[in-house]
């Protein structure tokens, strides 16, 4: 195998790793937010979360488009992962589904997403700029989301 072939394989792997990480983060965040919406009674809080879920759906579309353009294979989170997330949310909100509890839960989940994206960016220097830019865009969105959620603590 030539050096060029090895480099191309590594670049493809990095591209798929970054796009897969962004997809996983956005898909699980969108699902979690949509499940949580069922428990939110406050209109302004609900509107905020609807906007965030819509933004995550837009990121999912961008990842799919970028993957198709780059001929990258990505996996979307499966039903088992979604089931466990949904069950966990239901259990956490069973006793207390107030704004403070929901905001705290959403902040914790978003913080995990920020950490995962920061690690992904640090460990994927060979990925294409379009993939890295998408991960950075999602990271900035999640950091801004944290500030918006703090209001409801």
Number of strands: 0
Poorly predicted residue ranges:
none
Distance between the termini: 56 Å
What is the ordering of alpha helices and beta strands?
HHHHH
| Global Rg | 17 Å
Count of DSSP-assigned helices: 5
Which of globular, elongated, flat, extended, rod-shaped describes the shape? elongated
Mean pLDDT: 92
Structural class: mainly alpha
Major beta sheet summary: none
Range of strand content: under 5%
Approximate helicity band: over 70%
Blueprint (SSEs and pairs):
Blueprint: H1 3-37, H2 43-70, H3 79-93, H4 99-122, H5 129-150
Keywords:
81% helix, mainly alpha, single chain, 153 residues
What is the compact description of this entry?
The chain is mainly α and about 150 residues long.
Your description of this structure?
This protein has helices at residues 3-37, 43-70, 79-93, 99-122, 129-150. The protein is mostly helical and 153 residues long. The model has no long low-confidence stretch (mean pLDDT 92).
